[in-house]
Design goal:
Layout (H helix, E strand, L loop, with lengths): L6 H25 L2 H22 L7 H6 L7 H19 L1 H22 L11 H19 L11 H4 L2 H25 L2 H22 L7 H5 L8 H19 L1 H22 L11 H19 L1
Helix pairs in contact: 1-2, 1-4, 1-11, 1-12, 2-4, 2-9, 2-11, 4-5, 4-8, 4-9, 5-6, 5-8, 5-12, 6-12, 6-13, 8-9, 8-11, 11-12, 12-13
């Protein structure tokens, strides 16, 4: 199968990831406590993947594939969850534009480095100027989109918010690394449903443990009553991107996969802001945002073709 045939599925996963981010923000507002919100967001993912594994338990991994699995492979879910929690906890401190711009920049540059250097078992492609030019175009496009948010994006200009910038860049890098680790977990465990379950179980455990250690603040009855039925499904929509990574990253490459995913994510995010879907504050898609979107599309074309 040509890798290009997988692109529509990756684009759909990126769009769902953006919807999941908006839903997570609403869930965080309703449940008040970010650790509780994160645990509630990820718990349905584990339930669904466990059910799918029980329905489709074959194939099962062999002793040889388990022995060959690198120790970091089961940690892919945790690596990606850092960005999810960062959005829950910090997006109101730095602003949506700067947060997504820094997160995506870290993701893009790390993905290109993984492909070029062959890190974590990937087949190294060496330095190719055109994909890096594409990454630069995408970073510039993200900057246009981020800077067009204006005052509605929040307080990213404060000193306290800027102190979080390195963390957000690291979270973006971990997102890219987590995709590769999840693909390796899929290869070792053979069954994609089992691999997805193993990837997410540590995430729920960590967030539940943190909630037990930091149970305050707790939502009031009115807060819980305001949680819509679709808000706890935020994790499931984002999990589509993780599952796509399990299946496709070794076929299309980390750079192309993350580039397609991120571009679909950003374009959907622009639409969410423009139309005010899922209760998002409306930010019209003016010329800067449209220029940024065009630059991102041009960047992914360079990454995908070269």
């Amino acid at each position: 199968m040509s890798p290009a045939l997988l692109y529509p599925f990756i684009i759909l996963a990126g769009a769902l990831q953006a919807l999941g981010n908006a839903m997570n923000a609403r869930l965080r507002g309703g449940l008040v406590n970010p650790w509780l919100a994160a645990a509630v967001s990820f718990a349905p993912i584990v339930f669904v993947f466990v059910m799918l594994f029980l329905i489709r338990p074959l194939p099962l991994p062999t002793a040889e594939t388990l022995a060959a699995m690198p120790w970091w492979a089961p940690l892919g879910g945790l690596a990606g969850a850092v960005a999810v929690f960062g959005g829950l906890a910090f997006i109101d401190k730095v602003g949506a534009g700067p947060f997504n711009g820094l997160l995506i920049t870290g993701n893009i540059l790390t993905s290109l480095a993984l492909d070029a250097l062959g890190l974590f078992g990937l087949s190294g492609s060496g330095f190719k100027p055109m994909p890096w030019l594409g990454g630069l175009l995408m970073a510039v496009g993200v900057t246009f989109i981020a800077r067009s948010g204006g005052k509605s994006d929040g307080g990213g200009s404060g000193v306290g918010g800027k102190l979080l910038y390195p963390f957000i860049l690291v979270a973006g890098a971990l997102m890219a690394i987590g995709v590769v680790w999840n693909a390796q977990l899929r290869g070792a465990l053979e069954n994609p449903w089992l691999a997805a379950t193993v990837s997410f179980v540590p995430v729920v455990f960590v967030f539940a443990l943190m909630f037990l250690l930091r149970p305050s603040p707790l939502p009031t009855r009115d807060d819980v009553a305001g949680v819509r039925w679709w808000m706890p499904l935020a994790g499931l929509t984002g999990a589509v991107a993780v599952f796509a990574g399990l299946l496709f990253v070794d076929k299309v490459g980390a750079g192309a996969f993350n580039g397609l995913l991120i571009t679909a994510n950003l374009l959907t995010s622009v639409a969410l802001d423009h139309f005010g879907w899922f209760g998002m504050k409306r930010v019209k898609a003016g010329p800067p945002r449209l220029i940024g979107a065009a630059l991102m599309v041009g960047g992914i074309v360079l990454i995908s073709l070269f």
